[in-house]
Each structure stands twice: as C-alpha cells, then as structure tokens.
Design a protein that fits this description.
Layout: H1 2-13, E1 28-35, E2 41-50, E3 53-58, E4 61-65, E5 67-71, E6 74-78, E7 85-91, E8 94-101, E9 106-114, E10 131-137, E11 146-155, E12 158-165, E13 168-169, E14 173-178, E15 181-187, E16 192-199, E17 203-210, E18 214-222, E19 247-249, E20 255-257, E21 267-273, H2 278-294, E22 299-306, H3 312-326, E23 332-336, H4 342-348, E24 360-364, E25 370-375, H5 384-402
Parallel strand pairs: 21-22, 22-23
Antiparallel strand pairs: 1-2, 1-9, 2-3, 3-4, 5-6, 6-7, 7-8, 8-9, 10-11, 10-18, 11-12, 12-13, 12-14, 14-15, 15-16, 16-17, 17-18, 19-20, 21-24, 24-25
C-alpha cells in the first residue's frame, strides 16, 4: 500500500502544476542521472528526436522509445517492453522526477539536463583496460560470490565492454577512465548498472551498483586466457529423467503441454524466461529470427514466462507487449506469477537440478529427449561470444532437424 501511495503521489506532483501551460521535451541530447545514493549518480545519455520519440544510448546499443505522454508541465516516458517509467517535471530544459518500476516497488530519483557526454573526462587516462579480466563479485562472501569475465576496449579515456557471468552478461557498458579511476554504466529500462573502480595495470578493485537497491564489491585481474565454465554444463536433468514435461496456460486460457500434437516429431527449444529480463529480451529477439528461419523445417520454440506481476491478466499483458514489440510468433506460456524466484521456478520444472538463470534454453529432439540445456545468454554486448553462440546454436539445431 505504501508504494501505491508513493506512486500515486508522484503522478499527482508531476501533473498538478501550471495547469494552463502545455510543454513538451526540448530537442537534443540529455545526460540523465539516477540518484543511487547521497553521493553517487548513475548517468546515461538520451536524444530527443521530436516530442514523441527519443533514443537511449549505451555504447553500440540504441533503444528507441515512442511511448511519451504529457500532462501540463510533466512528461511520462514509458520504456519499451519493460514495465518502467520515467516521470518528471519539465523546467528550463531540465527534468526532475523519478524512475519507477511499479511491479518491483522501486523508485529512484531521476534528473536530466542538456549534455552530450555520459561521464566527464577530467584527466588523462593513466591505464588502459583493453582486454580480458578474470573477475569475482562479492569475493569475501561465500554465499553471494560469483565469477565473471570482463571484456573491454579503451580508446583514450573512453571505455566500452561488458562483464560476462555464467548466467548472462551485464549488457552494453560505456564509460571512462580518468587517471586510474574507472566508471561504467548502462540503462535499459529494466536494469540500471554502475561500476566504479580503481585500476592498476593488472587489477581493478571496485563496487557494482544495481539501481539504489543493491551494491557489492568486485575484484578483477588481467587474464587474457580466462574462460568461464561452459554454459552447457551448469543446468541438467536429474538422475532418472531424460525428458522435460510441463503444462501451462496460454493467453486464451488453453493448457499447453510439451506432449501436445504441435510438438510431436519436432525439434523444440524451451525458453525459460521473463518479460522483465533484459538478457531474455536479447535472446527473444534472436529466437524470433531463428523461429522464422527454421519453423518450416520442423522447429518449434515455446517460452515459459516466470513473471513478478501479481495477476495473470497483468502477466499476459506484459507477454503480449513483448511479443508485439519484438515480433515473436512462437507461443509464450505463463509459468509463474508473483515472483521470479528461481527456487520456485525449479519447483515447476522438478526434473531440472535447478533453474540457475533467466534465460535458460532446453533443447529437445524429435523423440522428446533433452539433448542439451544452455544456461544464460551471451548477448550482443559480448561481441565475438555472441557471434560464436549464434553459430553454435544454428549448427546444433540443424543437426537435430536432420536426425
């Protein structure tokens, strides 16, 4: 109830001023800043093309936004696919308001002003972090500790790249090195990530912020030969199982099972995912292409959505929005509402040893046997790894189709 009150209050505050004044966003580039804590801000850049269109930039990524509404002196910017809203009052080419994810009950103070650069360059870079970095997040806490691989390119002060983990990547990161201080950020509407670190030639010691609700330390050391564990070995069927089974509803209320005639004698990719998950969005965009290419050859794809929406109606609305935005022709079933808990997800698929990551893909052959389970997704921010993943997937799918 407290969050509903705060959300409603924010909407009223942004819409009750200067009722006789009609305003819209001024054209040009803005630096937006999310207030992570009292002293730390997470910046990103967006460009307003016209009153109804803007683009958010993260390195090579461009996110087109076309759901912008106005009320009096306030603007409401709804991010595509994700349940995320930037609500702000406009004044003298500045914005002040909040970034709101209603379903997760999160509000982060938000401000923006005209500026072309994400981070300011204040001094010459003393180090170059181009290359690969063996990374450990939360290194002193056994329960939260996990491994990652930093992949970066640096040109002068400017840095782009990402961190790959065993369950997915942190998408398109962009930032600077000033002296020996590293700053990287990304904002995609679902996640807001900030990495701050101190660099030597061979180590990075820093802090990772996820919005204003989570932070953890990380330590990285230069290691050009470092590789993460294979994503094909992390999730597997428990002893005694060789197949997958499920029954979940579609948007029309029909119960759909892997044993249905639609999937008989077909190669099936079962995508464990959520509409709130950026890595799942990247994967869904790719799988939409794969499905169109191979569906006439006997490939089926079915998504199993694990949603934090509290009602089926809201969850299916999010699923439809994703399908419409991306052009997904394969079915997405509703597997779970009210939580994205991986433990709860594994209870719905008890033949798996665990659900370690959203997304996870289960490859099922024409006889119904599970042939491979791939944990996570190496998205476009991972560069060569993404290319490698696509080549391997199409090769494996082709092999299964030819059997």
């Amino acid at each position: 109830m407290r969050f509903i009150f705060l959300f409603s209050l924010a909407m009223l505050l942004f819409s009750c001023q200067e009722r006789n004044t009609k305003k819209s966003l001024s054209l040009g580039n803005y630096r937006a800043e999310l207030q992570v804590n009292d002293t730390v801000v997470l910046p990103f850049i967006f460009k307003v093309k016209d009153a109804n269109h803007l683009t958010v930039f993260n390195a090579e990524e461009q996110i087109k936004v076309d759901e912008i509404t106005y009320k009096n002196d306030s603007v409401f910017i709804e991010m595509p696919v994700f349940e995320a809203l930037l609500a702000a009052k406009m004044e003298n080419e500045t914005l002040n308001g909040n970034f709101i994810i209603a379903g997760k009950e999160r509000i982060i103070p938000f401000a923006a002003a005209k500026k072309d650069t994400r981070f300011d360059v204040t001094s010459k870079a003393e180090v170059n972090i181009s290359g690969n970095w063996e990374t450990v997040f939360s290194p002193d806490t056994e329960e939260d500790k996990y491994s990652a691989k930093g992949i970066f390119k640096q040109n002068g002060n400017l840095v782009t790249g990402t961190f790959r983990t065993e369950t997915g990547d942190y998408r398109f990161l962009e930032g600077v090195v000033n002296g020996n201080q590293l700053k990287l950020s990304t904002f995609d509407g679902a996640h807001a990530f900030l990495f701050i670190g101190t660099v030597t030639d061979s180590t990075i010691n820093g802090t990772f912020y996820s919005g204003n609700h989570w932070k953890e330390p990380f330590v990285a050391k230069r290691n050009d030969t470092y590789e993460l564990a294979s994503a094909d070995d992390l999730t597997y069927l428990k002893e005694g199982y060789d197949s997958l089974a499920f029954t979940f509803p579609d948007a029309n209320g029909n119960l759909v099972s892997l044993s249905d005639a639609r999937f008989t004698d077909k190669v099936v990719l079962v995508q464990i995912m959520g509409t709130w998950c950026p890595n799942c969005l990247d994967e869904s965009k790719y799988y939409a292409e794969v499905y169109k290419q191979y569906k006439d050859q006997g490939l089926e794809i079915v998504g199993l959505a694990f949603e934090y929406a509290r009602t089926n109606e809201k969850a299916f609305a999010s699923i439809k929005r994703l399908q419409d935005r991306v052009g997904i022709e394969y079915p997405i079933l509703l597997a779970q509402t009210g939580t994205t808990s991986k433990v709860k997800a594994q209870e719905k698929l008890p033949m798996l040893n665990h659900v370690l990551s959203y997304p996870t893909t289960v490859f099922v052959d024409k006889t119904g046997k599970v042939r491979k389970i791939h944990t996570g997704f190496n998205g476009p921010a991972t560069g060569e790894k993404f290319v490698e993943f696509k080549e391997e997937l199409k090769s494996f799918v082709s092999t299964l189709l030819d059997e």
